[in-house]
Amino acid sequence: MNAFNPSDLWYNSPLVIVTLTGLSVLVLEGIRRNNERAAFAVTIAGLLAALGLSCLTYGSYETTFGGMVVHSVFGNYFTIIFLLAGILSVAAFRDFLKRFGIERSEYYALVLFAIAGMILMATADDLVVLFLGIELMSISFYVLAGFMRKTSASNEAALKYFLLGAFTTGFLLYGIALMYGVSGTTSLSEIRNLFGTISERPLFLIGIGLIIMALAFKIGAAPFHMWAPDVYEGAPTSVTAFMATAGKAAAFAAFLTVFVRGLDFSGTQASTLIGFIAALSMIVGNVTAISQNSVKRMLAYSSIAHAGYMLSGIAAGNQEGQTGIMFYAAAYLFMNIGAFSIVGMVEGDNGSRLTFDDYAGLSSRRPLISAFMALFLFSLAGIPPFAGFFGKYYVFLAAVKADMTWLAIVGVLTSLISVYYYLRLVVQMYFREGEGDTAVRPASLGVVAVGFAALMILQLGLYPSFILRMISGQF
């Protein structure tokens, strides 16, 4: 391993800036309590600064902190996704936080610390660093899920997520311990070099199986999805949006780090196992979403299905699979941030106005918001020429090239099912009559954030090579 080099701080400057910004928000709260405006401004400024530094250092490859953290196009790309998710969720939901009386400096600090954990997950080249990133993100999410302390649904969501998450942590740690016991190291680079001699050992395979289970829980894949609908529905909508986008992208970054970039499991039993989890997720998520009457719960089951789509790329285990997941992560970020932002705008006090019926006639009263929502739903359904179509195309293409055509067929058929419940909401907005002022008048900052997400969905759908060039390092 290399010794610490001062240049390590430069290559990891986005992580350093995000962490320092989180600490600064806490210090500001200590100096002057209830100064949410300053906390919001510092958070946005810190995230924008980190985003700028990510762009400045994009395209280079360096091993840092003794080889435990790797600065690469892969890590930088996901770092940009996490930072964009943070900026959009903070900007789009500030009015939501004010309306529900939960705008606190601690909220912004927890979002920043969660992003710091995500960056560690995407840049880790050591299982210990990967574990630290997962836990930093997860602990922040546990608290954020219960941020509406006076709401029983939010408290229940936090408790369920904490208990199941803590249980899953045991699987993850035990899997890492078994891999360390067989290989004698936690470095993914060194395990990669030893892979040919240890890949068939039973303890190593058991360790890999435990890690698959733990990461499948983090992305909400079936049959480890039981927490997702209740937590997504009970948590504040702002937290749900951030958790369902940035949190899922971070978990997939960890999946790619271990199973595609780190260890070559393509065509093995582990790859087949991941393929079955992907198929089950697509079937369970889409079929169950049909019967939901709550828009938040429908989007929760939809996220399970999308986890299955992206897992198809992991199961393929090839370069096309990695490219497909990286593209899908960006598309999914803008689709879901936009959809949940509009849910937050429509949502009333005490969790009211969350059903499909509450969106009846929305287009006649809020035409711009309805148009944005329809665009996000079309993209989630995979209808061209929006970004969601190309996301699914790339991961299914990877599955076909890996001789897993059956998985691509399951994906296409279940995508057809999803069209029903996505368009059901569009029908409610445009072809049903409703009463009253369904939507709260959205704040201008929220509309700008939603508009940016909609613009990116069109951009990625009409010009997908923009992201493909980023993935290849030509940025």
Q: Estimate nothing, just give the exact number of structural domains.
A: 1
**Class computed from helices, strands and strand pairing:** mainly alpha
Main sheet characteristics: 2 strands, antiparallel
Measured between the Cα atoms of the first and last residue, the distance is 30 Å
Number of helices: 21
How large is the radius of gyration? Answer: 21 Å
In short, what is this structure?
The protein is an all-alpha fold.
Any overview of this molecule?
With 475 residues, the chain is an all-alpha fold. The protein has one domain (7-471). 76% of the residues lie in helices and 1% in strands. It has helices at residues 7-11, 13-31, 36-56, 73-92, 94-99, 105-123, 127-145, 152-183, 188-198, 202-219, 227-234, 237-262, 269-290, 295-316, 319-346, 362-365, 367-381, 387-401, 405-431, 444-462, 465-471; strands at 62-64, 69-71. A two-stranded antiparallel sheet has the order 1-2. β1 (62-64) and β2 (69-71) form a beta hairpin. α7 packs antiparallel against α12, α13 packs parallel to α19 (405-431) and α18 crosses α20. It is globular. It starts with 6 loop residues before the first helix and ends with a helix. The mean pLDDT is 90.
Show the helix and strand layout.
Blueprint: H1 7-11, H2 13-31, H3 36-56, E1 62-64, E2 69-71, H4 73-92, H5 94-99, H6 105-123, H7 127-145, H8 152-183, H9 188-198, H10 202-219, H11 227-234, H12 237-262, H13 269-290, H14 295-316, H15 319-346, H16 362-365, H17 367-381, H18 387-401, H19 405-431, H20 444-462, H21 465-471
Antiparallel strand pairs: 1-2
